[in-house]
Amino acid sequence: MKNIVVTRKLAALALASASILGAGALAGTAVAAPTDAASITLSPIAGSSLKGRDFTAYKLGDYANVVKNADGTAVNSFSVTTATGVEALAAQAATDAGIDVSAKNASQDTLNFVLSGSESGSVTAAQFRAFANALAKGLVGADATVGGDDPVVAAKTVKADDTTIAKDGTLNLDLTEGYYLIVENQDGGKVLNDDGTFASGLPIALGTTFQDNGKGLQLSKDYKGYALGSAVVKSNTIPVVKTANADSAKVGDDVTFTARTAFPNLLDTKTFYISDTASNGFTAPADTDSFTVSIDGKAVSDDVKATVLGKVQLGKKAALNAAKDGVDITDDANSWAMVLNAADFKTDGTDALFNAANAGKSLEISYTVQKTGGDDQDATVAKNSVDAGNIYNEGQVPSEGHGEKKVNSFDFDVDKTAVDGTTPVFGAAFKIASHDTTDTSTAPTDTWLVRAADGKWSNAADEAGATTFLSGDTDYDGTVSDAEAKAKKASIDFAGLAAGTYTVKEETPAAGYSNAALPTFTVTIADDGTVTIANGGTLVSNKNDVVTVKNIRNLGELAQTGGIGVIIATLIAAIIATGAVVVIRRGVKNAKAEAAALRA
Fold first, then answer.
1. Which residues form the signal peptide (predicted)?
2. Fewer Cβ atoms within 10 A, N terminus or C terminus of the chain?
């Protein structure tokens, strides 16, 4: 059985393949009357929807001479009794498709001859596609619409909307048993454009299952994964989605991106492409070592992966050419592209089986790159985008698909001031750690961070190895220069951070300031970049994502901040440390008096 898939433009089994004709000598009987209820189920390709599309089924004929296998569970052979008006249309369609019908015997109609030839190989895949297209044009008549002057009355039109589409996204056409040509029509029934091209999708030649006492029987032979009664419909726009394993990341983090689109039916495709571009803090991968290839979430075999990745062109960008009859490849250091042609997959063996089993399913290509910059602002947000396009064998070109994934990085400022909240204090030393609260069964942990000169963050072995940030050191060189000390604010910009919670610790005060009550506090960056603080006491405040940390020269200044509670806690801790527990009550009772004494 060669070229069985030929029947379909839309990745279904144009069950011409099913036409194992002329085998009436085998034992068996017809399994149903032509009026028996049957159906055809249309499914969208991965990532797309049938919603908003209309489908009309024309019945080409009823099944006849149906022969079941020995145990009656499948059909070995059948023929089609052509419906009234179809023979003349089929004869013209065969001529238009360049099919030689001179070998057709007098008792055989054109439809059965073409179906039989598609199964035997005497009618090529390209010829059968052209036959189905020409037959569809004949069925809709001179006005190129469903209804009107149609020479054959349509069996059913179904609008794909919320009332007809099932929860799984499929659309069911309730019909009677037989062989059909399904066309897609726009509002008003229009099937063809003025230039004769199809206004929407291409025709689907497909049979229902054979009805046998309420059961639908399939053919006894395996036709490359396809089945009677169901078809996968091509999208009018190539569906493509870009995702990442994180919505935000620190500069320096590895991020895994996935481009997801529908795997093309390469028996029905001239050219298919994916083009992936990085910008604002991401670069294209330097090699394919990190690439993975999956279908519906399941990794493909090594040989198929090698075939697919062998078509990846690093440093290249792909797009449909102006005529939309080919793909242009251009140099772009921030991109990679993959172009697949039907010739890339063999017509038999593993590649053909892979294609037949997976056409229309979700193709996922993932790779890992490092985030090198970018923030959460529209103009400079780090992102990766992907485009995909397809040129079908008939020249039909759906709209190109586009997907984009932004991976934000956020920042917050720490302003160091005197107790008045305005006087800048230069040279106070801070460190920052990721504060992990994901495991609620254990206490939160801090992973101290290192910031490199290029702004990339990494994990330190311990707190001692973390980067020390000085208030007012705007160039991060570890010192506050005379020029920096003239600034109106003594700030630290903690930039390039992912959403999450961080511990910020003041380790050393600026010269002339007390090391008592140095704050350690947490900063939480929400997914939208909003900053909140906790555990900072009265010395730490937040306004407009700027955290202000006050320094005191002595404990007397602490009282000016409303920090009596801190004094109490400090005194209690000191008393406990000396073992003088009997003094605790006195310390608490007389805290304000002691604070006054300290000020003196």
1. 1-32
2. C
